[in-house]
Each structure stands twice: as C-alpha cells, then as structure tokens.
User: Which sequence fits this backbone?
C-alpha cells in the first residue's frame, strides 16, 4: 500500500503532461510563498485604527444649527501595537429619541503613541446642520506611523504636574514649579510649553479662553524627571475655568553639550573621558572690572586690552585675582616675565589634566561640534574707533580645545560703560578663516560692527562656528 496513491497516476501519464503538472505545482508553491505576507504585515492589517483607537470621553464646547461645532476636549486611548497620527473622528448626531440627524467629521493632527492615553483640545467639526442633542463619537481612521519615524519632543516629554505661585486669573502667570518627564533616550533643552486656559468667555460662542506660550531655558536629560521653578507664562486669562499644559517642542542636544552645561551649572568642569582633558576652562565672556566698580591701583596703568587679558588669565587660574604684596606684578603674570611659564606643565597647550574629585560624573566620550565651549577667547586687543564708524579688534587669539577644525567663527561683541558697569550695545561679527583642531591662532583686524558710542569695556564670546568642510 502506497502512502501517496496519486504517485502511480502521475507515472501513468504522458511524460509531457507529467512535466506540465509538476511545473504547475512548483509554480503554485512559489507564488504562495511570495503572496504570503510577513507576520508583521499581517498584524498591521488586523490592527485597524478604528478598533485599537478608543474614545474614552469627550465634552462639547459649542454646537447647534448654523453654529460652529467645537469639541472642548476628547480623550483617546491607543491599545494597539503601533503609533498613529492624523486621527479622523466621526460624530453621529441624534435627537433625544435616537433619530439620526447626520454626522460630522474632524481630524486630530497629532500623534497618539501605542499604549498611551491622551486628551486633545479644541477639535473643530465645521458648522452644524442640526441642534446638538445626542452624539456618539468614534475613530473613523488614522495614519500609521512606520517604525523608525523620528519622534517629536511633544510626544516624548510628558507634563507630570505643576503649581502656580498664587494670584488669580487675570494677573501675571508664574508657575511656582512644573515637573517634566523625558520618556526618550534623547537629551533636550529650551523646552517650549503651551498653556491652554480653558473656558468660554461670555457670549463669544466657541471661544475657549486664551493660549499662552513660554520657554523653559534649561536641560532635560534622557530618561529623567526634573522640576523647574519660577516659569513666567504671561497673562492668566480671566475667563479661564481650568488650565491644561503641554509640551510643544524642544531642541535636541548631544551628550557632550549636556555634560558641559550641567557641569557649568554646578561650578565644575566637564572632561573628555578618554584623555581626561578639560573642554571648558572658561568661555572668555567676562569683562575686566566686572566685580567691582573701580579699577584697582595695580591696573591703573593697563590698557583696555591688557585688563581684558588679565581677567581671562584670572579665570583660568593662571594668576591670582588680587596679587598679594611681594608677588609678581600683573604684567609679569600676563607676559610670563619674572616667573615660570604657566603653560609649561607637561601637557599640550590649552589642555589641563583633571584631578578634582567628583568630576568623573561629567565625563563624555563623543566629539561633536560645540563651538561655544570648544573655542576659548584667550587674548584681545581693541583697535579703537570713533562714534559713527566701524570699530576694530586689532588682534584676537582663539584656542580650539577640541579635535574639530572650525571655520566661519561667529562672535558676539558687547560694549559696556565701565564706571556704571552698564551695557551699551552689542554687535555680531564673523571670522571667515580656519581654526585648526587642538590649535591656537591669532586673527587680526576684525570688524566689530558699527559704534553707537565709545566703549570703556568690551566682552567677546564665541556663539557659533562651522566644522571645516561643511
């Protein structure tokens, strides 16, 4: 007895017929393999948006025949495996006796991540053709977000809670505290928040209070929860009945920038992990005479440029802030005459071996462009100028502490009145030259912009630069 009785039948056929049958079988097997979708694709077909996106609750702000149909808020839950956006909401209208009156449709142009629940506000459905009596809202469709699509900060940063400083609506709004949770592996800064003051003013049908925006100029590390204080969000609208706060956007930053800025906030240094080198010995932004109101006697005979150079040396710890009697003079400390060379320490120029305890907390490995920290202003000579002309920086020495070669170095030049220590004005200028990696270079005759007045003090800081070749 044969297990495959059809085999004898095939053998009895004409060889040509037999060949055609075998070929057809093989072709059918091949086509079935091609036509069979991958398991992931099957899941996506089975996961229809209207089945996995659930309407949990909703409230109307206004509606009625001939009036705008505005849904005050709607809460959706995504119980599926994927993220969706551009969610279409369909609302069926009924009388009190459940007689159909038609339907409305609106779209939420936002993202609802998988496994999350989110409330959306002020959804518009156009003009209603019937009185608002009974309604049933459901999800009619949505766009699937493919895996790998870049996520936005507003979807990755969650507002956990907030507290006002006090005062009533109609006054200045200051958040005593606001707590944000970063659910991503990205670091963020300059987090822009949106404050929706919810309520309906008097007879203005469909208007929902007022929206305010503010930027939290701080850092939010990856997978972290942080609380920020004293955030001014502007005017608190008097018609508001409640408030909702959400994140609108934020700027992603590298691990290097995060570590450098975190270190500065705590008065420490951030160092490159491999070589233990300081990347932020000073940003060269402070001006001489900043802490006091008069020029010390030891500095009376120094020019503006020499005082600037002395201040930079003090910030780097090369000379004491106030020379003690019997120690080297300010000029000797700056020029190196009459004492040991402060750079002859066995390390490369511009580098410092870090030995302080606790600084390992701010070690980083990546070498990414961060011009404002990588480039240090080490020396400056003011070329002068008169009111109504273009000021000149006769010489400026920049030290590049990074492994990146920079070009198009953008500087901010701030001008001050020394006696009052008050800012006068500021200009921007660009050095269209190359600053080598791990190099120090002096640039000459740099335009400092139009002079509105004659300054007594100046400050220069690097605000941007472009890696050479980009």
Assistant:
């Amino acid at each position: 007895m044969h297990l495959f009785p059809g085999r004898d039948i095939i053998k009895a056929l004409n060889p040509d017929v037999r060949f055609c049958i075998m070929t057809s079988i093989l072709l059918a097997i091949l086509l079935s393999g091609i036509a069979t979708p991958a398991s992931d694709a099957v899941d996506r077909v089975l996961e229809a948006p209207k089945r996995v996106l659930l309407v949990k609750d909703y409230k109307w702000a206004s509606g009625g025949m001939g009036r705008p149909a505005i849904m005050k808020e709607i809460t959706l839950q995504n119980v599926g495996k994927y993220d969706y956006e551009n969610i279409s909401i369909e609302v069926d209208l009924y009388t009190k006796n459940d007689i159909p009156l038609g339907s409305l449709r609106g779209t939420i142009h936002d993202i609802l991540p998988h496994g999350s629940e989110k409330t959306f506000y002020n959804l518009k459905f156009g003009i209603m053709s019937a009185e608002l009596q009974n309604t049933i809202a459901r999800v009619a469709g949505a766009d699937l977000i493919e895996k790998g699509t870049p996520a936005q900060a507003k979807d990755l940063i969650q507002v956990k809670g907030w507290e006002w400083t006090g005062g009533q609506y109609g006054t200045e709004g200051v958040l005593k505290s606001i707590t944000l949770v970063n659910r991503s592996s990205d670091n963020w800064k300059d987090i822009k928040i949106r404050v929706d003051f919810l309520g309906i003013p008097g007879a203005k049908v469909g208007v929902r209070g007022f929206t305010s925006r503010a930027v939290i100029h701080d850092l939010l590390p990856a997978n972290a929860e942080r609380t920020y204080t004293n955030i001014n969000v502007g005017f608190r609208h008097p018609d508001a009945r409640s408030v909702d706060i959400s994140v609108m956007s934020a700027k992603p930053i590298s691990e290097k920038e995060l570590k450098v800025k975190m270190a500065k906030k705590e008065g420490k240094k951030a160092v490159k992990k491999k070589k233990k080198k300081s990347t932020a010995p000073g940003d060269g932004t402070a001006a001489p005479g900043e802490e006091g109101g008069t020029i010390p006697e030891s500095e009376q005979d120094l020019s503006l440029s020499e005082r600037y150079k002395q201040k930079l040396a003090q910030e780097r710890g090369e000379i004491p802030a106030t020379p003690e009697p019997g120690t080297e003079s300010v000029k000797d400390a700056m020029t190196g005459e009459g004492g040991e060379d402060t750079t002859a320490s066995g390390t490369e120029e511009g580098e410092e071996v870090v030995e302080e305890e606790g600084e390992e907390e701010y070690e980083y490995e990546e070498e990414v462009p961060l011009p404002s920290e990588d480039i240090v202003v080490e020396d400056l000579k003011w070329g002068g100028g008169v009111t109504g002309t273009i000021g000149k920086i006769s010489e400026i020495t920049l030290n590049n502490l990074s492994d990146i070669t920079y070009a198009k170095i953008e500087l901010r030049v701030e001008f001050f009145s020394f006696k009052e220590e008050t800012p006068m004005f500021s200009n921007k200028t660009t050095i269209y030259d190359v600053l080598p990696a791990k190099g120090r270079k002096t640039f000459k005759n740099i335009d400092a912009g139009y002079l509105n007045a004659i300054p007594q003090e100046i400050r220069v800081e690097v605000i941007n630069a472009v890696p050479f070749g980009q």
Remarks:
- The chain has four domains: 6-35, 49-145, 156-253, 282-349+369-470.
- The longest helix spans residues 15-35.
- DSSP finds nine helices and 21 strands in the chain.
